[in-house]
Design goal:
The complex is a heterodimer of chains A (134) and B (149).
Chain A: H1 3-12, E1 15-21, E2 34-42, E3 46-47, E4 71-77, E5 79-83, E6 86-90, E7 99-102, E8 105-116, E9 123-131
Chain B: H1 8-22, E1 27-29, H2 35-38, E2 44-54, E3 64-75, H3 84-104, E4 114-117, E5 123-129, E6 132-145
Parallel strand pairs in B: 1-2
Antiparallel strand pairs in B: 2-3, 3-6, 4-6, 5-6
The chains are: A mainly beta (134), B alpha+beta (149).
């Protein structure tokens, strides 16, 4: 158990977010997302390194509105949180197609990157988010 | 004689109502939905105004054709049990549903005098919405007003 790292992490993961996930397809149809995870401790949302910026010549544009869609990122590690109503202690089950709810804004989860730790006691995920065009 | 022309919206809204009533699409939009409205739903249908052809032949005879772009969207993969093969089957099913819908309402179903298809094949494609890939199929449906009013 790498206590020092965990203590450092706890100082970084100052934000608490939740996620929603579209329900399973039933009879060929899928509805709007429902609450999936709650109480996820994450780093505060910040612009993704791979996102649009002054030095990125290829902005992520909405095909309908032409509006620039910023990419954001958060990090999370194995932790205690609520998964579909049950308390679990694991790396948050977040995947592409989910939505992360931050404040009153819902972000598309565009990519989840696993950062495995060789000690297996720590594992991080880097979650790339895209703000919905409203 | 005064001819009061109608708005194309009447026909578009009517087709939205008919398609919704089939229950085959999770959502039917009569406008371009933003991705935060779609939110991963599948399948969904988008019906848009495409154009109007109207002639002014004489007083009281101004036949009009209202073209509508109708596009089905089917999620290709839900990272669960729904696969690309399921999506292709669903796209074919919805193609048939739409053709049957127009066949069953060929007399216009009170929204116009007749519904027909543009004599051109439907077009399938792919599109990314909110980071997820959808199969699409588009066709043109025409609402006719024989008198123009």
């Amino acid at each position: 158990m790498r206590v020092e790292t965990n203590m450092s992490w706890s100082r970084l993961a100052t934000a608490t977010y939740s996620t929603t996930r579209p329900p399973a397809i039933s009879s060929g149809k899928r509805g709007i997302p429902v609450t999936h995870l709650t109480g996820i401790k994450c780093t505060p949302i910040m612009p993704a390194i791979t996102g649009t910026s002054a030095n990125n010549p290829m902005p992520n544009l909405d095909p309908v509105t032409g509006q620039v869609k910023e990419l954001w990122e958060v990090y999370a590690e194995s932790q205690s949180h609520t998964d579909s109503g049950s308390t679990v202690n694991q790396v948050p089950d977040i995947r592409e197609g989910d939505f992360m709810v931050i404040g009153s804004v819902e972000y598309h989860v565009r990519r989840v990157l696993n950062w495995p730790d060789t000690s297996t006691t720590l594992a991080f995920i880097r979650v790339i988010l895209e703000e919905s065009v409203t | 004689m005064v001819t009061t022309l109608v708005t194309r919206e009447t026909i578009r809204d009517g087709l939205v109502t008919l398609a919704t009533a089939t229950g085959k699409w999770q959502a039917v939009y009569g406008y371009v939905p933003k991705d935060n409205a779609v939110r991963g739903q599948s399948p969904f249908l988008v019906i848009l105004s495409l154009g109007t052809l109207q002639s002014m032949e004489s007083e009281g005879k101004n036949p009009a054709e209202y073209s509508l772009s109708v596009m089905s969207h089917v999620l290709m993969n839900d990272k669960g049990s729904w696969t690309e093969a399921n999506a292709e089957d669903k796209l074919d099913e919805l193609d048939k549903v739409l053709r049957q819908l127009i066949r069953d309402n060929a007399s216009g179903s009170s929204y116009c005098d007749a519904f027909t298809f543009l004599a051109s094949p439907s077009q399938t494609d792919f599109v990314m919405i909110g980071g997820e890939q959808y199969r699409t199929e588009a066709r043109v449906i025409i609402g006719h007003h024989y008198s123009g009013s």
